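User: Please predict the structure of the protein below. I'd like the answer in structure-token form so I can feed it into my own downstream comparison script.

Assistant: Understood. Taking the following sequence of 343 residues as input:
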Amino acid sequence: MTIDINIVEEGEELAKPSQAPMTGAVSAAPGRRRGKRPKLLFLRNSKAVAGLVILAFFFLIAIIGPWIAPYDPSARSEDVLQPPSWEHWFGTTHLGQDVFSQILVGTRGVIVVGFVAGILATAIGVVIGVTAGYVGGLGDESLSVLANVFLVIPQLPLIIIIAGQLPSVGGVTVAVVIAITGWAWGARVLRAQTLSLRRRDFVEAARSNGESTWRIITAEILPNLTAIIASGFVGTVAFAVLSLITLSFIGIGDTGEWNWGTVLYQAQSQLALQRGAWWWFVPAGLCIALLGMSLTLINFGIDEFVNPRLRSTAQNARSLRKRGIRPRIGFTPVVREAKEDRA
């Protein structure tokens, strides 16, 4: 005789034992026989999907923005400080420049600088962090000291100092400066993870089989660090975007190269808030907030994808809501209900 194992919810009766012949094993639920692919699990995360959709929208604007801009962002007109209208969707500046066109054209600079800096900083961090963690010894100590030096130095003041000393500061130059100063945190995290992976059984087995160091790192260690690398990349992109906007807002760099920070710099220097020209700085601020929110949601999705406890908690909460059961958080309501039932 086999016993059917069911999850008993509040208000349901216990299942009766079945009279089927003994099979020697308990059959699993049909929906749990095969595990879902990791990629599908990540795409089923609502936070990650929402972040990717918003980020894809900004990518699209970065590609087609200069082509669909209704006006030249630097062109002047007689419509000075006009509020939003059908002719100028985001209003105009003190020189009659169209703010909507400036936002569209400036999106490309923000996306390019953010992702170029993120790619370069992540590459530097992966090389230094994984090398230090796997090699160990004097090499580990030397690379760790170098990373600690960059961690101690405040990044944003260092970026301002370096960018201020350069003869010309364009978007690519700012991205390189941000990458050079922003790799240390990711390298430190990857070093710690590599230290824990290099003594695992599968790495030791590959080493005993005579595999080369390059193949062990690329085929055995790096695949297990993919989620951490992706999370660090997303965080670096967010930091690079904020650094670019900060540099443009304080006037460091080419003010003729449009991005969202340049729009805010022009609005601040011409006292847009005191003039009541809210349309001059609010759209750029909302774009910055939306892009930051999208990167944060993607990072949250990666965290839930990496951490099984977070992933299982979110999936259980969704399944309970679908069945009309309100998930309970904490132990106090359960204790109180138990006392009431005993009374």
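That's the full token string. The first helix runs from residue 38 to 43.
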